[in-house]
Structure formats: structure tokens, C-alpha cells
Design a protein that fits this description.
five-stranded parallel sheet, single chain, four-stranded parallel sheet, Oxidized Rhodanese, domain 1, 9 strands
């Protein structure tokens, strides 16, 4: 999709131009899973630094914080400086599968106060399609001086979420079968938060793995009750897919707020209600 100057996305062609400029961005490879690092070592965008989603973009925490708690600010600042991020640096994040883990990096860095971050639309496949070369050399970036300001993006608590359906829209970004409770591969309780509507983030992408056009995304969100005036809060299983949904909202010209503990944090308290089935109630 075409991107605008204030879009959270950057195209592969734009990234190539930026890398070849006199002020290249800091590029972060956020491939996750068992093959994440090995895939990075086999070939990555030149000068890209590998970032581990679970150890660097998440932190330790109590069950109430969910499966992927927000990282501790001091640890995140140390990691970001090690990636070469300074206060004035543009940052581009990417992965190789639908942008889900890169979306988490985009949101966490913005939550930490670094607004100049964009996601490579279409990820590594788009880079290859555009003729971008792959490198195997592991860079040693000059240490940055970024200062983390946690809370630079708003978040919701469980108490906020309970009150939300009467005043706004609560979006469940997981796959529909997890929302209904038909399947639950990761968490001990299946279902969804009462009042939430199902809007799997994967449907925000086209068959080419790129985000839909802003008008198409706005229509999709409008069909779920998002009008742009009431609060919109997003959750998923652990706060990863929800970040991707919030990015899609921004592409559409809308704003979303995350409930970071998400479903895994919600069910840590057995007194909280759980709904199943295809309805939002």
C-alpha cells in the first residue's frame, strides 16, 4: 500500500533510499521463534541488528502482567542503546512473518518514548522483492544515548477494561477460534473478555503480507463499531498481536490503546468473567 510521511509504515523502496542516504536509520530485525536468530545470521537487511522479542522486548513479571510483560525501563534503555539508538535516530523494524513481532517492537519503542519508528511493510519478503540485498555480517553499532520514558503511550488496566464496553470498543486481536474458546493453544483458560469484539489482526493484511489501504482498514474497523470518537482498546494473548492491531489502527488514521497483560493476564484472576462463543457478550 502507498504510505504517507506520517505513516507508521515504510516501503522497501523507501528503506533502500534511507539506508543509502547520509543519515541511515537504525534497522532492527525482530524475527522470533526458534529460528529467529539463525534466520538473521543466514541473511538480513544490511546493518540490521537482531532483537529478541522475549528477552529484550519483554520482561519478567507476575502472572497478572501476562505472558509477555512490558520490559523493565532500565533494561530496555540498555538494550536500545546497545542497538545503536540515539535520541535523534529514525528506527525501522521488520520481521519475516506478517510483521507480528516487529509490531511489538514498534509499539514498545513508542511506549518508551521513541516516536521515530516505522515498520517495514511486507517485511523481509518485500525487501527481497524490491531487489534488496541480504547481508550476513553482524554489525557492531556505535552505542546510542537514547533515554527511555516509559508510559509515553497510554495503557489500560483490568479495571479500565471492565468499564470500557459501556463507553468504547474493546477489540480482541487473536484468531477467531481463540476468541470463541473453540481452541486455546497457549493459555489455560479459553474464551474472551466479555464485551470484546473479534477482529483478528491478520485480516488487516492483504495476500501479499502488506497492510490494506487506509480506507479499507477504516471500513473494517467501522464495521466493528470503531467510529474514531470513543476509546478503542486492544488486547490479544500476551500483548504482541495487539501491538500489530494498534499499528493497523494508526494506518487507518485511528488511535488504539493497549491492555498489555491481555488475555493471559486477564485470566490470572479467577474472579474475572470469561465469555465464549461468537457473540461479544
Amino acid at each position: 500500500m502507498p504510505v504517507t510521511h506520517d505513516s507508521p509504515l515504510i516501503s522497501a523502496g523507501e528503506l533502500r533510499q534511507a539506508i543509502e542516504s547520509g543519515a541511515p536509520p537504525v534497522v532492527l530485525d525482530v524475527r522470533s521463534g526458534e529460528d529467529g536468530r539463525s534466520g538473521y545470521l543466514a541473511g538480513h537487511v544490511p546493518a540490521a541488528v537482531y532483537v529478541d522479542l522475549q528477552t529484550e522486548l519483554s520482561g519478567p513479571g507476575e502472572p497478572a502482567a501476562g505472558r509477555s510483560p512490558l520490559p523493565e525501563p532500565a533494561a530496555l534503555q540498555e538494550a536500545m542503546r546497545g542497538w545503536g539508538i540515539g535520541a535523534g535516530n529514525d528506527v525501522v523494524v521488520y520481521d519475516n512473518v506478517r510483521g507480528l513481532s516487529a509490531g511489538r517492537a514498534w509499539w514498545v519503542l513508542r511506549w518508551a518514548g521513541h516516536a521515530a519508528v516505522r515498520l517495514l511493510d511486507g517485511g523481509l519478503p518485500a525487501w527481497a522483492e524490491a531487489g534488496g540485498q541480504l547481508a550476513t555480517e553482524v554489525p557492531a553499532p556505535e552505542r546510542g544515548d537514547v533515554v527511555v520514558r516509559p508510559g509515553s503511550l497510554p495503557t489500560f488496566t483490568a479495571a479500565d477494561v471492565i468499564a470500557l464496553p459501556a463507553t468504547g470498543v474493546l477489540i480482541d486481536a487473536r484468531e477467531f477460534s481463540r476468541y470463541t474458546g473453540e481452541t486455546e493453544p497457549l493459555d489455560p483458560v479459553a474464551g474472551h473478555i466479555p464485551g470484546a469484539v473479534s477482529l483478528p489482526t491478520t485480516a488487516n493484511l492483504g495476500s501479499d503480507g502488506r497492510f490494506l489501504a487506509p480506507d479499507d482498514l477504516r471500513a473494517r474497523f467501522a464495521a466493528a463499531g470503531v467510529q474514531g470518537s470513543d476509546p478503542v482498546v486492544v488486547y490479544c494473548g500476551s500483548g504482541v498481536t495487539a501491538a500489530h492491531e494498534i499499528l493497523a489502527l494508526q494506518v487507518a488514521g485511528l488511535e488504539g490503546v493497549m491492555y498489555p497483560p491481555s488475555w493471559s493476564g486477564w485470566i490470572s484472576d479467577p474472579s474475572r468473567p470469561v465469555a465464549t462463543g461468537s457473540g461479544s457478550a
